[in-house]
Amino acid sequence: MKKITLLFSAILIVSLSFYSCEQNQLDPSDPNATDFVEGKTLNKISNSEDIRYCYQEEVCLWAGQHIDAGNIIVGNDDTNLYVTVNSEEGFQNGEENIKIWVGTELPDKRPNAGHFPYKVTVASGETTATYQIPLSDIYDPEDECSPHQFYVLVHADVIADGGDETAWGGCDEGAGKSWWYSIDYTTQCCECWCGFGNDYQNPEEEACLSMMFEGNDYKFWSNSFDFDEMKDKEYTLSLLANPSMCEPQDKEGMMLDKLAIEVGKVVMKVYEGNGDGDNRMVDVKYILNDKYKGYNIQLDLYIGADRVPGYDLQSQLIKTDDTHMLFQHKLNPGEVTYTFMGLPWLTKDDSQVSYMSFHAAIGDCPMPSLQNPM
Predict the structure, then answer these.
(1) pLDDT tier at 140 (50, 70, 90 boundaries)?
(2) Which of 14, 28, 100, 295 could form a disulfide with 36 if both were Cys (CB 3.0 to 4.6 A apart)?
């Protein structure tokens, strides 16, 4: 009997030692790990407007399961992932009131947020906080840029509807009996697409500019429009990036330029406004392709008496002076459509003709402060 007891004790000790060893080897990136409690330090970004995102997405922030408590913005540049938590009523007064996990495998049940590797504390008086996670913490860096798909779990202790609530980030509900949400995110490479409006329906009226910059040949267009011919009509142009030809499309809009990329459309509506004097007006609507949702996007629109405006290839922006008009607008994350409303139909003397250049800078483009923000 004594030998059996000793043998059982030996087996138990070996089993416990093996179990302990296995526990110590648990991957800290597993959100279901039960022994990983050590937090990692995150760099807090004081001003998120200074971040030059390659791409970003805005997702839900659900508190108490059904309360819309704010939103979360997830984005990346070349080297970092950024997570911004916006709680409309702020955060609870306590330690580690935001916890974040990032990984490639989505849990099959609600994970224990207390064991997430990234833990930070936001002061109770704040309503927004942005944190930086090196992409090298998530996957091995590569020489060439390529998209990487993974999941982001964000747990926050927030104030919602005047009370303390638990919140999860994301619009996709997680599996299992307990409620939770997740964020499915894919990084985007930092590239710059500069689209210019091409009036393919009247190519004989276009002015094609060809400029050399850093060894590359850049082309864009200034388009002329007659007010009387355009009045009370809608007119559509293509926004083309990377063109290699001055006439990249036929009159039906079919692409002839194999290198050109259509990044969107421009729709014009010309009309007479109310009031005395010269009240010729135009609305200009930019409609970018949905694939650019979340990218940095800045729109530029030149209207003036000169057929050809200036263009600064260094800043990727149209140049102007006090005698002409340049309208600019930065789209918010998730937006791809914007309309410049009620713009003047600028001409020289009594002419009916106005010259317009349409431009959209998409992605990781140099974007200085707006000159005439709308």
Answers:
(1) confident
(2) 28
Across the strands, what pairs with 91?
A: 158
Contact indicator for 40, 117 with CB cutoff of 8 Å: yes
Distance of CA 261 to CAs 55, 62, 209, 289, 357, Å?
19, 38, 18, 11, 18
Phi, psi at 122, each rounded to 5°: -110, 135
Q: Report the percent of the chain where pLDDT is more than 70.
A: 78
Tokens of 44: 């807090």
**Residues 31-43: b if buried by 16+ CB within 10 A, e if exposed:** bebeebeeeeebe
Q: Are 31 and 107 in contact (CB under 8 A)?
A: yes
d(CA 63, CA 159): 8
Quote the pTM value.
Answer: 0.69
What is the total residue count of the chain?
Answer: 374
CA separation for the pair 281, 168 (Å, rounded):
47
